[in-house]
């Protein structure tokens, strides 16, 4: 696909932020904070899931639940647990 030239993007962005008031920057700041929070939350969920999968690997699980089914059950239980955090912030 080729090299991505970011200097043009920065030039356009600098011009758009030059004429904005500080109060106009609040939505952009909220978007950045939301993006960072979402990525940190996803990282935490993936690390927890990896740890649980390592522990499940050595447990005695029936043959019908080995592999993908136990991962889906684990993901479901994690989703239910994370629903408890929905109203904290």
Describe the structure.
- This protein is mostly helical.
- 67% of the residues lie in helices and 0% in strands.
- It has 3 helices and no strands.
- The protein has helices spanning 7-18, 26-57, 68-83.
- α2 crosses α3.
- The mean pLDDT is 76.
Secondary structure class reads mainly alpha
Helix content class: 55-70%
- Rg over C-alpha atoms, rounded to the nearest angstrom: 21 Å
Main β-sheet: number of strands, strand sense, barrel status?
A: none
Q: For this entry, what is the oligomeric state of its chains?
A: single chain
How many helix segments? Answer: 3
Low-confidence stretches: none
What pattern of helices and strands is seen along the backbone? HHH
- Could you tell me how far the N terminus lies from the C terminus, measured between alpha carbons in angstroms? 41 Å
Q: What is the strand tally?
A: 0
Give the overall pLDDT as a whole number.
Answer: 76
Q: Tell me, briefly, the overall form.
A: elongated
Q: What proportion of the residues form beta strands (DSSP E)?
A: under 5%
């Amino acid at each position: 696909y080729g090299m991505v030239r970011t200097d043009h993007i920065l030039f356009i962005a600098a011009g758009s932020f030059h004429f904005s008031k500080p109060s106009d920057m609040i939505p952009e700041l909220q978007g950045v904070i939301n993006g960072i929070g979402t990525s940190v939350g996803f990282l935490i969920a993936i690390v927890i899931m990896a740890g649980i999968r390592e522990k499940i690997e050595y447990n005695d699980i029936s043959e019908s639940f080995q592999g993908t089914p136990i991962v889906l059950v684990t993901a479901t239980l994690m989703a239910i647990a994370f629903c408890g955090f929905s109203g904290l912030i």
